[in-house]
Amino acid sequence: MANMFKPHSYQEFAIKKILELPELALFLDMGLGKTVCSLVAVTQLLWDYFSVSKVLIIAPKKVAESTWDSETEKWDATQQLKISKILGTASERRKALAADADIYIINRDNVVWLMEQLHWRPTMFDMLILDESSSFKNPQAKRFKALRKVRPYFGKVVELTGTPGDKLMDLWAQIYLLDGGKRLGRTITEYRNRWFEADKSNGYVVYSYKPKPGAEQEIYAAISDIAFSMSAADWLELPERIDNVINIELGPGARSRYNELERQMVLELPEGEITASTAAVLSNKLLQMANGAVYDENKGVIDIHDEKLEALKEIAEVGRPILVFYAYKHDRDRLLKWFSYAQELKKPEDVDNWNAGKTKMLITHPASAGYGLNLQAGGSTIVWFGLTWSLEQYKQANARLYRQGQQQAVIIHHLVTKGTVDEQVMLALQRKNAGQAELLAAVKARIKKYRTGVE
To answer: What is the domain-level CATH number for residue 389?
Structure first.
């Protein structure tokens, strides 16, 4: 039986803005109900205002598979909406595209394919919803370029996200897809030259930029008529959140092996300025080792220690359902081997089973479960088996349980291997400062340690 939708005041505001504005960015914090607000507004636009006829929604894969249609069925105000999911094989996608529906949903990885299909009928859709618009923050990405070409054919565009990106630079591409560059400039270069200055550079090569004094306020003022931000802390009484750091001690053998591998990797780096890509490669290796295993040059797996697995085993003995975030494929393989009852999040049914209390341990990569999935009914315990440098990914992943509708205190365990790069990542996350700059600093500290002997 469908639930009656009784919007909160902030949801009424969000729906009103979707109805009124032809271009809109809703930066609603995780758990504030972006999906239902959009569906209610679409229902009114279709049958009360008659201003749209077919709506295209672009979303992350797992969200496209299950979130939008389950939300449609959940509420009395939206049950009449007909949805066609453009997923699966090319022939299945073409069939779904040809189906008669009100809303068509496609995952973001198939955007380029869809735009190629629409080249002969670009006006098929008159409204576009970008679910997690931060997926389009890179102006060099194929999906952004493909969407930019057909953007003028949509009479109404709505962007939804909890976090528009880790950096202020991430805003340009998202706002461009709304207004074609009216507010922040027609090119990323124009935007950068106006509001940013060189931060890290080597001669004429600039590796990163930082906002000029007052730039953040000016940028937000420039988009204030079409972009609205709401924080869960301002509107909802969420349950208690308990962040717990579990320090993992390596035994003498594992510590010696870890230190030697780390030393070898650092000393193999070329002399000179360390680039972001070089630092990322080394950081990935170090994080893998902190988790307990590492890929060799032939993609084989070298086991180093099982300490994080042992720690997770102790947490699991409490008996509560656990959502586990892993970082690498060998993490996943080792987790599934150790915990025979664990279920990897792959299909919509896995979400249903978790929320129905049928799954004791659900494991997934934060990038796969970081957007849109409602998992709060299935449990209240998160374990970060492998940490991430992405603050956006970290916040989005935690919001799968720590969100509206959660009835229990949420416990977030972080498995941190002492004396490894895990400690730098954890500190950056706690300071809400995780990102490329912190990654570079952590790597440079290790280079200094092994090349000069100075900690």
So the answer is: 3.40.50.300
Q: Residues 38, 85: one domain?
A: yes
Residues 424, 295, single domain; the answer is yes
Spatial contact of 168 and 219, defined as CB atoms under 8 Å apart: yes
3-state secondary structure the chain: CCECCCCCHHHHHHHHHHHHCCEEEEEECCCCCHHHHHHHHHHHHHHCCCCCCCEEEEECHHHHHHHHHHHHHHECCCCCCCEEEECCCHHHHHHHHHCCCCEEEEEHHHHHHHHHHHHHCCCCCCEEEEECHHHHCCCCCHHHHHHHHHHHHCCEEEEEECCCCCCHHHHHHHHHHHHCCCCCCCCHHHHHHHHEEEEEEECCEEEEEEECCCHHHHHHHHCCCCEEEECHHHHCCCCCEEEEEEEECCCHHHHHHHHHHHHHHHHCCCCCCCCHHHHHHHHHHHHHHHHCEEECCCCCEEECCCHHHHHHHHHHCCCCCEEEECCCHHHHHHHHHHCCCCEECCCHHHHHHHHCCCCCEEEECHHHHCCCCCCCCCCCEEEECCCCCCHHHHHHHHCCCCCCCCCCCEEEEEEEECCCCHHHHHHHHHCCCCCHHHHHHHHHHHHHHHHHCCC
* Structural domain that includes position 193: 9-235
Residue 401 has pLDDT above 70, yes or no: yes
Are 192 and 285 in a shared domain? no
Claim: this prediction has a pTM higher than 0.70: no
Same domain, 57 and 121: yes
Q: Are residues 57 and 176 in the same domain?
A: yes
Interval 305-357: pLDDT, tens: 999 999 999 889 878 899 999 999 999 999 999 999 999 999 889 999 999 99
Within a domain: residue 223?
A: yes
